[in-house]
């Protein structure tokens, strides 16, 4: 005879509790029907660690409307019994270990309900009564169409009962016994509904702990209701582990090691196995055999039982049945996402849930495009882009001035000029570059009559200039994070020179720093000014001496000035200013009517530009502040995608460091090179930190309210670089960028069409002329930071508007107006031409970006920004015989790589 494990008292055969100390009976060998139908459940007097065992209690057959004399057992209530002056009993629906359920009519509301009573032996059990109340409390937290609703708890004649939704149908266990397995399409439909209902419970922190076919009702319309939350608990508040039906317990739950959402996932996998095969996963006849089968992981593969079963379904089921909880899907929605067909994102949103990053990556269509279609799209988009580039190239200043002399020739001309001016010492530091003559360009755009009188881009007056700097010391900019320019480092070291030539190689401006300390001759030696005139290509005899007005930056002991006209332009007055120190020229420049003394006068900025600039800065700072607050909240709530954010940081840091390696002038001193490395690394980490913050603030909100816009982006950031959705989003973004480039090219022709007669002049990034290293480095920066950051703040703002405005059309309209205001300073403020044309142009450009963001998502809008910013930066030329054509060819080749990658990825169905 068995004895109690606590007091050693002999136990009567079949006893559930020790008659002396009320300790529940420990695990014993039980027949098969116990494993399949009954539950381990807490009992009165049980300690938290020891589950009690309920013996099998089979529901008895009954017929609604039968009389007692018919011999049919209607349970404790005969049909027609009125409870609490409100509920009229219709029939008993079933009986189980956790209670007895009756169908009744609610006479007050006029609708059918289900009433659940505790078994008669447990009606006054404090533990079971507590469970009864807990079932109501937990089940009422879950409002979902696939969860049976529990209304309230009531009492009639001292008997507590639950009122629940009445489901006119049958439970899944009965259905499977009646018809066997379900057809795959119907089984998939039920499986998705099961996943949705379990997700709704888990989202509220509720663990079901007794998920089995008998607790899944199927109504007449085929809709699923998960029932019986009598053993449910709040996650993290589990006091007893081995509670539930042994045959549907997870291994860790059966072993008493723990229970979690992954335990419910395991039970879900067992239900799905039975749903698709018509058989149970485990065939054990005793608890000991069941534990052994769990340890051996002995499960017949579903496809061995149903040969035509989709292998994708089998993989989803077997993942749920992994012995290690960490290897199972993270959520029931992830299980739904792994099933063939359906839309798990729509299911998640309908359930009011936030899909995980893995679900977003797994969702959406995966149909690959045919090679012919992908190549046709790529070729068509490149054709549209080329039209925009052709129109843009016609406006580039570098294409309209004499530009046949490459930088090496202009450097040689500058060195020859320095030699003729008496500077023969070899400099330690040199630097060269191009820059536009902004004051002249502003003048020809404002003075239409002047611009139309002569060709404004003949080279005289010059619209494009070239500078060559020399220094007896190494040139190190004051800002170590930027490149050397005309003004950084400042020209404050003795014998520093700046030689400025026009695009024809003629001297336009010269400046040399005189000695800081010297013994001077008084009067100073005579200066030969004719050398300067010769280098400038001017005939000194055609100029009249005048009183000097302009001063050099350093001291001089002789000054001179002349007035005349520009060669070949008698209508353009020209003033020449020069200075020397001890007979050596230190200053020479052309002074045109539009020349401004910039050390004395600030460049005028309109009030509109200042206001719009302030709005732009305010918006940026506000966005960053909100992003910091939201990302901190998401990190604490564990709502973000830190893995994806860290991958983004690595991409940003890598691209920024590549930009520094390719673009930053090398340093000869090791300590200086090391300092620059750490400064560049710090700047890259700041860029990565900004993207990390923005991503953690943005991604959870987009995933919650707008997950479809993250499909391509999430797949790409998680390493699926060859994916049909990624390729589609890249091609769509390229289309948006190409359209904007085309609009840029059409801007000035439209101005002319509406009456503007001025000169249009565009200047790209002239550092492109430094060569391929700079081009590739800048493209790396655009890809790794600028395009992504711009896309993120754009989508972040749209998501914020969507949370408040709800309607997507209204969100798009408000976002377009707002972004137009923010970007107005760059798009139309202080530009010549009709204001309203610029404004309409700005609205259309912003509208394209908003369309990319609202319709196609983050990846598409990032590619749109990449193409727009890149193509507007390149100083395009399509003249193949020009020295700068390889730069344009390389820039176009990088663009072609993007569209080629999109077309290639779109062909992969992975």
- Numbering strands along the chain, what is their spatial order in the largest sheet? 14-15-16-17-21-20-19-18
* Share of residues in helices: 40-55%
- Provide the low-confidence segments as ranges: 14-34, 36-70
Backbone shape: elongated
What's the end-to-end separation, in Å?
63 Å
What does the main sheet amount to?
A: 8 strands, antiparallel
Q: How many beta-strand elements?
A: 21
Using only C-alpha atoms, the radius of gyration works out to: 40 Å
> Structural class per helix/strand content?
alpha+beta
Number of domains: 4
Rounded mean pLDDT score:
79
Strand percent estimate: 5-15%
Number of helices: 28
Describe this structure in words.
- Helix content is 45%, strand content 13%.
- The protein has 910 residues and is α+β, with helices and mostly antiparallel strands.
- The protein folds into 4 domains: 75-165, Phosphorylase Kinase, domain 1 (2-Layer Sandwich), CATH 3.30.200; 169-362, Transferase(Phosphotransferase) domain 1 (Transferase(Phosphotransferase), domain 1, Orthogonal Bundle); 371-396 and 605-905, no CATH class; 404-456 and 462-591, no CATH class.
- The strands form 5 sheets. An 8-stranded antiparallel sheet has the order 14-15-16-17-21-20-19-18.
- The model is unreliable at 14-34 and 36-70 (pLDDT under 50).
């Amino acid at each position: 005879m068995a004895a109690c494990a606590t007091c050693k008292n002999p136990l009567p055969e079949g006893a559930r509790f020790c008659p002396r100390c009320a300790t529940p009976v420990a695990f014993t060998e039980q027949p098969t029907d116990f494993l399949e139908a009954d539950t381990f459940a807490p009992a009165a007097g049980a300690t938290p660690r020891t589950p009690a065992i309920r013996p099998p209690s089979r529901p008895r057959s009954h017929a609604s409307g039968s009389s007692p004399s018919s011999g049919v057992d209607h349970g404790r209530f005969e049909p027609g019994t009125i409870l609490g002056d409100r509920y009229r009993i219709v029939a008993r629906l079933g009986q189980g270990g956790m209670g007895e359920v009756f169908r009744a009519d609610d006479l007050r509301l006029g609708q059918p309900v289900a009433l659940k009573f505790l078994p008669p032996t447990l009606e006054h059990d404090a533990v079971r009564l507590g469970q009864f109340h807990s079932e109501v409390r937990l089940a009422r937290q879950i409002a979902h169409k696939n969860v049976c609703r529990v209304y309230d708890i009531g009492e009639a004649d001292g008997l507590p009962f639950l009122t629940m939704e009445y489901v006119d149908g049958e439970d899944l266990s009965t259905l499977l016994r009646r018809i066997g397995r379900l057809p795959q399409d119907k089984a998939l439909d039920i499986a998705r509904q099961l996943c949705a209902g379990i997700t709704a419970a888990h989202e509220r922190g509720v663990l079901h702990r007794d998920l089995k076919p008998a607790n899944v009702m199927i109504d007449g319309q085929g809709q699923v209701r998960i029932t019986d939350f009598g053993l449910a608990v709040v996650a993290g508040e589990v006091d007893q582990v081995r509670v539930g039906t042994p045959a549907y317990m997870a291994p860790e739950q059966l072993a008493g090691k723990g229970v979690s959402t992954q335990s419910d996932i395991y039970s879900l996998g067992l239900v799905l196995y039975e749903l698709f095969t018509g058989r149970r996963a485990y065939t054990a006849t005793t608890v000991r055999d069941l534990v052994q089968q769990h340890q051996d992981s002995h499960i017949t593969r579903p496809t061995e039982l149903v040969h035509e079963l989709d292998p994708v379904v089998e993989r989803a089921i077997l993942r749920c049945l992994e012995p290690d909880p960490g290897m199972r899907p993270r959520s029931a929605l992830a299980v739904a996402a792994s099933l063939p067909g359906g839309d798990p994102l729509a299911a998640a949103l309908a359930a009011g849930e936030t899909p995980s990053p893995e679900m977003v990556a797994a969702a959406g269509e995966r149909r690959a495009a045919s090679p012919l279609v992908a190549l046709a799209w790529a070729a068509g988009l490149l054709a549209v882009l080329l039209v925009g580039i052709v129109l843009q190239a016609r406006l580039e200043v570098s294409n309209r001035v004499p530009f046949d002399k490459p930088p090496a020739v202009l450097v040689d001309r500058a060195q020859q000029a320095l030699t003729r001016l008496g500077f023969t010492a070899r400099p330690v530091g040199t630097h060269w570059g191009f820059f536009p003559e902004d004051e002249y360009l502003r003048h020809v755009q404002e003075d239409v009559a002047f611009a139309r009188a002569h060709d404004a881009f003949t080279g005289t007056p010059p619209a494009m200039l070239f500078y060559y700097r020399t220094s007896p010391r190494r040139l190190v900019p004051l800002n170590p994070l930027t490149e050397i320019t005309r003004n950084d480092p400042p020209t404050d070291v003795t014998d520093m020179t700046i030689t400025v030539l026009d695009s024809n190689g003629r001297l336009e401006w010269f400046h040399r720093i005189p000695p800081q300390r010297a013994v001077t001759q008084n009067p100073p030696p005579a200066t030969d000014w004719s050398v300067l005139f010769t280098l400038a290509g001017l005939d000194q005899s055609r100029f009249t001496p005048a009183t000097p007005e302009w001063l050099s930056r350093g001291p001089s002991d002789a000054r001179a000035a002349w007035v005349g006209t520009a060669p070949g332009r008698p209508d353009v007055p020209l003033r020449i200013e020069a200075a020397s120190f001890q007979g050596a020229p230190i200053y020479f420049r052309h002074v045109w009517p539009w020349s401004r003394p910039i050390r004395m006068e600030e460049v005028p900025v309109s009030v509109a530009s200042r206001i719009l600039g302030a709005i732009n800065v305010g918006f940026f700072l506000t966005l960053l502040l909100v992003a910091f607050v939201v990302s901190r909240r998401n990190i604490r709530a564990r709502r973000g995608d830190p893995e994806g954010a860290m991958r983004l940081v690595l991409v940003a840091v890598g691209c920024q460091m590549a930009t520094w390696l390719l673009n930053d002038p090398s340093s000869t001193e090791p300590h200086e090179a090391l300092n620059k490395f750490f400064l560049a690394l710090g700047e890259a980490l700041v860029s990565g930190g900004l993207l990390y913050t923005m991503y953690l603030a943005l991604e959870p909100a987009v995933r919650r309210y707008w997950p479809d816009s993250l499909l391509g982006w999430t797949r790409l950031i998680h390493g699926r670089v060859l994916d049909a959705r990624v390729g589609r989003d890249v091609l769509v973004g390229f289309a948006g960028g190409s359209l904007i480039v085309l609009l840029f090219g059409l801007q000035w022709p439209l101005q002319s069409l509406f009456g503007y007669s001025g000169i249009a002049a565009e200047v790209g990034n002239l550092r492109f002329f430094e060569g391929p290293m700079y081009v590739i480095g800048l493209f790396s920066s655009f890809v790794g930071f600028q395009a992504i950051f711009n896309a993120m703040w754009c989508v972040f703002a749209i998501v914020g508007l969507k949370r408040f405005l709800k309607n997507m059309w209204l969100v798009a309209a408000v976002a377009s107006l707002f972004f137009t205001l923010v970007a107005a300073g760059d798009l139309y403020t202080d530009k010549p031409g009709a204001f309203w044309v610029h404004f309409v142009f700005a609205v259309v450009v912003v509208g394209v970006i908003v369309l990319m963001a609202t319709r196609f998502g983050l990846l598409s809008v990032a590619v749109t920004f990449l193409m727009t910013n890149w193509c507007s930066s390149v100083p395009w030329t399509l003249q193949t015989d020009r020295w700068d054509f390889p730069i344009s060819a390389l820039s176009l080749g990088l663009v072609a790589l993007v569209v080629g990658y999109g077309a290639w990825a779109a062909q992969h169905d992975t």
